[in-house]
Design goal:
Length: about 250
């Protein structure tokens, strides 16, 4: 079952609790802290473009990259998507026409990487396409978050549709699987059913630090997303901020 196909058309509806405005402000603060000029920003795993559009509104020239054609179609259908270049590419092999001031990847897109080899590959690509002193900023859900989520079922019913989320986390492999069943009302008044399977991986902080170092990037900071301070053992989501240093 391919991920983000049937889910793409209803993603924003059911993910309406995500604090996109706060996260966009966090990124702006980090850009300013590390003197990232108002240049081109590449958003890896941009999905429906929620963060991409917010950063465009802040004045950045945006490129959005996602492996899901359906998610990109949703992104491009938005009224405020004009001026954003969207590319349907896999983040593990993405290509740009030139360098950019920053590469970002938010909303746990990097957790979809299966192992440290794939993580290293993305870090190397980001480094390759960054301007001198450019920034690579990404977030990741932690092992602590997935353990709290555990194994169980979440269901939500709304007037226009419903979904069932079956979650399964293996703390030994740090792989998290979730199986989505979506019922969406169609024009005939009946309901279409979509099924998707997603897998995310929890990387340790040391694994991420090693990948950043091996890629040639310099790690600047690791932050708890919710507090913008040093992470704790209970942190659910972390920012990793790295910089290009070799050009």
């Amino acid at each position: 079952m391919e991920a983000y196909t049937g889910f793409a058309t209803v993603y924003d509806r059911y993910m309406d609790n995500i604090p996109y405005d706060d996260w966009a402000q966090n990124i702006k603060v980090l850009f300013e802290k590390y003197n990232m000029p108002m240049e081109i920003v590449c958003d890896l795993g941009c999905g429906t473009g929620q963060m991409t559009r917010r950063l465009k509104e802040m004045g950045y020239d945006m490129i959005g990259i996602d492996v899901s054609y359906d998610m990109l179609m949703e992104a491009m259908s938005q009224e405020d998507s004009d001026g954003i270049l969207y590319l349907c590419q896999d983040m593990r092999s993405f290509e740009l026409y030139g360098t950019v001031g920053a590469v970002i990847s938010l909303c746990d897109s990097m957790n979809y990487l299966a192992d440290t080899d794939e993580l290293l590959q993305v870090c190397k690509l980001a480094n390759n396409y960054l301007d001198p002193k450019g920034l690579f900023i990404f977030d990741m859900k932690t092992d602590s978050y997935y353990k709290k989520l555990g194994t169980g079922t979440i269901a939500e019913n709304r007037e226009e549709g419903s979904f069932i989320w079956e979650n399964e986390y293996n703390p030994d492999t740090r792989d998290n699987y979730y199986y989505l069943t979506i019922y969406e009302e169609n024009e005939e008044g009946t309901f279409d059913r979509f099924e998707e399977e997603h897998m995310q991986h929890a990387f340790t902080v040391d694994e991420v630090k090693d990948a950043i170092k091996e890629s040639g990037l310099e790690l600047l900071q690791v932050l708890d997303v919710s507090t913008m301070e040093a992470p704790t053992e209970d942190s659910d989501r972390l920012y990793f901020i790295a910089r290009e240093v070799t050009k």
